[in-house]
Amino acid sequence: MRKLAWAARGMSVVSGAVLLGALMVPSAVADDTPGSTASPNSSMTMQGKKCGSRDVSSAAPDFINLPPGLIFRVATDAQGHSFLNDSRNPGVWINLGLLANAPTCVTDSALSVTEATTGVLYITLLNQDGVLHEARCTTSTTPFTPVNLVAACGTGFSILPNTPVV
User: Greatest CA span in the chain, whole angstroms?
Assistant: First the structure.
């Protein structure tokens, strides 16, 4: 009878340990949702996992040819997509995947704008492989839209050589 009681206690200890381990699994490990946009050049296979991170960058030009209070923003999502907003179009977010050579699995972003007669908006995106991609878009008095962004950004994104982030 003592052997049965010992076995029963042993089973409850093992069951408790297994349950505790299941409850303590990090949600990132448990999350295995489809819809990844992993880069084909990625050294890691990200199928079924989120590959990006949420990030926001902004730039506010301060020159006479553009209206005061203008702000350009880039936001990235957990699936690695990136979007541009021109504050002259409230609520309109343009998928930067429209541009040629747009990176996938974007993990970070940066914006800057020159203040000249025709300003240039520099959009810099970092993908999961640590490679920086840059697009140069000509600003004007017309807000950026999905229709005019491709023309404003010319050749789209190009890789910045010798990117130090790896």
Answer: 92
Nearest in space to 163 (alpha carbons), one of 113, 129, 136, 135: 129
DSSP state of 144: P
On whether the pTM is more than 0.70, the answer is no
Span 15-68, pLDDT tens digits: 443 333 332 333 222 222 333 333 333 333 345 567 877 888 888 887 766 677
34 vs 31, 39, 50, 51, 152, CA distance in Å? Answer: 10, 15, 8, 11, 33
Q: How far apart are CA 70 and CA 40, in angstroms?
A: 36
Find, among 162, 110, 157, 156, the residue nearest to 131 by Cα: 162
**What is the model's pLDDT at position 8?**
46
Cα torsion angle, 65, 66, 69, 70, sign: negative
What pLDDT is recorded for position 93?
A: 95
Distance CA 60, CA 69 (A): 7
